[in-house]
Hints:
Elements: H1 4-25, H2 38-44, H3 46-116, H4 121-142, H5 145-160, H6 165-186, H7 199-214, H8 219-227
Helix pairs in contact: 1-3, 1-7, 2-3, 3-4, 3-5, 5-6, 6-7
Amino acid sequence: MMNSTRKTAITVGILFLIATIILIIGGVFSLTKNETDYLTAVSANENQIILGALLEMMAAAAVVGIPIAMFPILKKYNEGLALGYVGTRIFEGLTIFLNTIVLLAILALSKEFVTAGAPDVSYFQTSGTLLLALRDTIGVLVDFPFPIGAVIFNYLLYKTKLTPRWLALLGIIGGILWLATAPLRMFGFNPEAMEFLAFPIAAQEMILAILLIVKGFNPIASETEKKA
C-alpha cells in the first residue's frame, strides 16, 4: 500500500507540473499586448481570454497547494523555514489571482467599448492603459515571492536530502538568478536576453516534478522523517 509520504511526493510533483506548464503556456490564451486595437480584439477573443483566466486560476491553486502539501514533512526539519515557504507561495498565488481579476476587468471594459458603438474613446483607452499597467505591475510582483520560495524550498531539500542534492542546488541557483532580475524588471528594464535566466529554475522544477512522481522522496530521508 502506498504510504502518505509517497502520496505527498506524487501530489507535489503533479502540482509542480500544473503550475509550471500553465504559467508557461497560459499567456498564449490570455492577452495579446501587441494588438494595436486591443479594446476591440479582446472582446472578439472572449473565449480565449476566459480560457486564459481559468488557466491562471488553476496555476494559482497549484502554487498554493504545493507548500500546503509539503508543510507536514518540512516542518519536522525546520518549521520556521517551512512556514516561510508557505507564506511566499501563498503571496505568489494571490498575485496570480489578482492578475486574473485584472484580465477579466479588461475583458469587461472591451465588451463595454464594443457595445457602446461610438464611445468616448479617450475614456476607454485611459482605463485600458491603467488596467494593462496594473497587470504588468502585479506580474512583476510575482517575480519576488516565487524565487524566494524556490530558494527556501530547495535549501530544505538540500539539507534534508529528500531529493538529490545536485537537483536542490540547481533550484537554489536558479531561484537566486531569477530573483536578481526582479528589481531590474520592476524599473522597466526587461531585455529579452535576460529571459534565459529563467531556464535553470524552470528546468529544475520540471525534473523535480517528474522525479517526485516516478520515484518519490529519497527513501533514507523519508525514513528519517517517519522517525522525527
